[in-house]
Specification:
By secondary structure, the chain is of the alpha/beta class. Helices cover about 45% and strands about 20% of the residues.
């Protein structure tokens, strides 16, 4: 059957088809639109005869292209505010759950007279205060990597636990901007190192160090050691105390960690400098960040803004001074 169109109708149909082709092209269907364009007038008539389904498909394609449905909706919390879902979850619960290592690490976090105190405890409480909620600490993790796993499993909202920002950890959780930067450092057994160095200059020995280095197992510095001392024999121990015992016994020539932990040894026991020697690497930084789940982008943005606006920035000197309190 052949349809005869008034010239005005034909012009309108052609205009509509051109518009539809542009929409389809924007959504990745340009090939289909181009294939349909040169068809006979009968095909155009069929398209004009039933415009509603085509228009519906075009609208769906445009919506998909613009990702109109991908943005999460704001959530109304009990006090009537509209908040992002990850913030609303915490506000509705009424508490911020913070993952923190179960092993005391003063002055960052430790128990004093039955109360959890420390620089990072204060930091976590300040974040909770800004959110208008209480804070609850989850200290089930016994290693730093286990703290990261706690966040990855969604068992805590954030982790404030002297966590180094490493590439391996950044594959499973998100990190805030650094709130403290510390240089890497080695603490050496003077006798063992002298025997190993054999009168070679310190920079020459350290640059291609092939001796034994003790680190905490499953820690950031276990990873750093493999990368920065590829020729060394890396020996992992359960905890920092175990590393220092091995250093004292001469089982390892050096112990590798951040400058705070190394300086802390000499600060608490000045006589230790008689048997120990320290090396600080000014070109290697250990940056500490707050861990957030990968599905909490607004919470991460909030944490970053909180840290940016915080006037009391942490420094190595402030951390060392806190040891005396």
């Amino acid at each position: 059957m052949r349809f005869n169109f008034h010239p005005d109708h034909r012009a309108k149909a052609a205009s509509w088809l051109r518009a539809a082709a542009l929409v389809l092209c924007a959504c990745g269907f340009a090939g289909q639109a181009a294939a349909q364009a040169p068809k006979a007038p009968a095909a155009k008539a069929a398209a004009v005869a039933a415009p509603a389904p085509a228009a519906s498909a075009a609208n769906q394609a445009v919506s998909a292209a613009l990702n109109l449905s991908s943005a999460p909706a704001l959530v109304k919390v009990p006090d009537g505010r509209l908040l992002a879902p990850d913030i609303a979850r915490i506000v509705t619960r009424g508490e911020l759950v913070v993952a923190m290592l179960g092993v005391d690490t003063p002055p960052f976090f430790y128990e004093k007279k039955g109360e959890l105190v420390g620089l990072e405890v204060d930091l976590a409480k300040a974040i909770a205060k800004e959110l208008g909620v209480n804070v609850r600490f989850n200290r089930t993790a016994k290693t730093f990597n286990a703290v990261v796993d706690t966040i990855a499993r969604g068992e805590a909202d954030i982790a404030v636990s002297k966590l180094s920002r490493t590439l391996a950890r950044a594959q499973v959780i998100s990190f805030s901007q650094p709130y403290l930067s510390l240089n890497h450092a080695l603490i050496l057994n003077r006798v063992k190192f002298a025997q190993f160095a054999r009168d070679r200059a310190l920079p020459d020995v350290i640059r291609g160090f092939s001796g034994s280095v003790g680190v905490i197992a499953k820690s950031s510095f276990a990873d750093y050691a493999k990368r920065n001392f590829p020729n060394a024999k890396i020996i992992e121990y359960p905890g920092w105390g175990d590393v220092l015992k091995a250093l004292d016994k001469g089982e390892v020539i050096g112990a590798y960690r951040d400058e705070f932990e190394v300086k802390r040894i000499l600060k608490t026991d000045p006589t230790a400098s008689l048997v120990l020697r320290t090396v600080t690497f000014k070109d290697l930084e250990d940056t500490l960040g707050i861990a957030v789940g990968i599905n909490d982008p607004v919470l991460l943005a909030f944490i970053n803004e909180f840290l940016a606006q915080r006037s009391d920035k942490l420094t190595i000197n402030k951390v060392l001074a806190a040891l005396e309190k």
